[in-house]
């Protein structure tokens, strides 16, 4: 049996009573964080234009487009919300799977629940848990880096997780859930070229995956068939998309007893995860030694090969970002921002911050390189960093971070993510929305007890 069919049978038969408490808690954190960063991302470059285009051409009313007071068809609402959730690069991350899981799964699930109506919090918990687990499992089972293969696994693998969630909410049986995954495979996409070009499609790709997932589940419900050898077939995902660098045993290992989304990390900074250890180290040095930016002579940052490929080259773009995407994927700019502003939050990576002369001067001093020790000990997944700052008086200050805040070694719990949610809401809605943000946090805290999750989607709308 193809691994996609085994997973389809698992998803269709899953019940809330089967879920470990730790898996439900991991789902709770993901729902809260994904929606919070989407609220903040609504005003990010490209989002207003894309949402306007969606609302201008789609006359549906099935699901809320978060923060707009407007509704659209479930598929198009999932696209809009998925784009907003990924726009700031502030969303979850699985270091080993090399993807963001929530930005496709959560928008698809909430849009489908809104469309159906009467979906309980327990039913939502089952669907989102199944979807997040599958997206992360696919990433962990993939043995080739996205920068090597060229596929952006957030979208490519996230599509299948989002489809599993949507199919579970429609209560599709195992056969039709398998077809939904096969229909999704016909639409699988997402590439890394948008990172190189600084294109706004980078933030749209998880939204496309969420939209296609909703449509795939709806088509399967209507009786449309898809491939049944979707993952392992001769022309399946493992061979065509991943060049055979795909481990079926890893994908299926402990299915139903261990949930891979429990290993998701969360971001304290709105930038690529590969920049976070360097930001942590730079902030520590700046605050510990009260470094004045104009006293800095040189900055060296050591990372592993994966971090270097993702956020250190080409040097000219990383030191002088053209657009926000460039800044989000730049160790020189993020480290310089940490040293100059002693924080890295949404306004610090906004378009009007890209020309800050104090930050650009420091970014020009950053020299990034592959550190042999960090590469040997952390070759894939976790992106460590060693930051050395040389002051004009000859003093050298160094800090090493093997793992950044928000990772499994230094996790962010629900209350920490609630504080982040409130910051995101305040950024988007202003201080006057404090009570609204608090109410949403409490709704997420007990989401599984909701009789109808439209109470949640209505509050978001």
Automatic annotation (TrEMBL):
Per UniProt, residues of the MmgE/PrpD N-terminal domain are 6-246
Gene3D superfamilies found in the cross-reference section: 2-methylcitrate dehydratase PrpD
Q: Which domain of life is it from?
A: Bacteria
Q: Which InterPro entries match?
A: MmgE/PrpD_sf, MmgE/PrpD_sf_1, MmgE/PrpD_sf_2, MmgE_PrpD, MmgE_PrpD_C, MmgE_PrpD_N
Please give the SUPFAM superfamilies that the UniProt record associates with this protein: 2-methylcitrate dehydratase PrpD
Domain MmgE/PrpD C-terminal: from-to ranges: 269-442
Q: Which family does it belong to?
A: Belongs to the PrpD family.
Q: Could you identify this protein by its name? A: MmgE/PrpD family protein
């Amino acid at each position: 049996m193809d691994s996609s069919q085994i997973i389809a049978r698992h998803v269709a038969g899953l019940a809330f009573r089967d879920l470990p408490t730790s898996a439900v808690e991991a789902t709770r954190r993901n729902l809260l964080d994904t929606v919070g960063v989407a609220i903040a991302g609504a005003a990010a470059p490209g989002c207003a234009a894309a949402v306007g285009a969606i609302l201008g051409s789609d006359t549906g009313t099935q699901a809320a487009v978060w923060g707009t007071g407007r509704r659209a068809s479930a598929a198009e609402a999932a696209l809009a919300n998925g784009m907003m959730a990924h726009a700031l690069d502030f969303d979850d991350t699985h270091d080993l799977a090399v993807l963001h899981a929530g930005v496709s799964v959560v928008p698809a699930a909430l849009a489908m629940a809104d469309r159906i109506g009467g979906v309980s919090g327990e039913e939502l918990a089952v669907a989102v848990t199944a979807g997040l687990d599958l997206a992360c499992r696919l990433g962990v089972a993939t043995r080739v880096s996205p920068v090597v293969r060229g596929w952006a696994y957030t979208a490519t693998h996230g599509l299948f997780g989002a489809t599993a969630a949507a199919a579970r909410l429609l209560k599709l049986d195992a056969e039709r859930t398998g077809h939904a995954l096969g229909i999704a495979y016909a639409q699988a996409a997402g590439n890394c070229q948008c990172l190189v070009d600084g294109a706004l499609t980078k933030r749209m790709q998880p939204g496309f995956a969420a939209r296609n997932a909703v449509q795939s589940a709806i088509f399967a419900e209507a009786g449309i068939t898809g491939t049944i050898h979707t993952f392992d077939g001769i022309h399946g995902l493992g061979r065509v998309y991943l060049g055979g660098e795909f481990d079926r045993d890893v994908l299926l290992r402990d299915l139903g007893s261990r949930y891979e989304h429990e290993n998701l990390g969360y971001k304290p900074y709105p930038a690529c995860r590969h920049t976070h250890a360097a930001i942590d180290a730079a902030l520590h040095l700046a605050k510990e030694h009260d470094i004045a930016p104009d006293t800095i002579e040189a900055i060296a940052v050591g990372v592993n090969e994966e971090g270097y490929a993702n956020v250190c080259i080409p040097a000219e773009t990383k030191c002088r970002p053209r657009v926000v995407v460039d800044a989000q994927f730049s160790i020189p700019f993020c480290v310089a921002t940490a040293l100059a502003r002693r924080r890295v939050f949404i306004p610090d990576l906004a378009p009007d911050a890209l020309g800050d002369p104090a930050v650009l001067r420091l970014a020009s001093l950053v020299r990034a390189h592959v550190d042999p020790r960090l590469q040997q000990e952390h070759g894939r997944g976790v992106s460590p960093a060693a930051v050395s700052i040389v002051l004009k008086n000859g003093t050298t200050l160094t800090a090493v971070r093997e793992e950044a805040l928000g990772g499994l070694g230094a996790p962010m719990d629900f209350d920490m993510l609630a504080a982040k949610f409130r910051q995101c809401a305040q950024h988007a809605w202003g201080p006057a929305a404090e009570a609204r943000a608090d109410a949403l946090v409490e709704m997420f805290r007990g989401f599984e007890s909701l009789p109808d999750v439209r109470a949640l989607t209505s509050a978001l709308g």
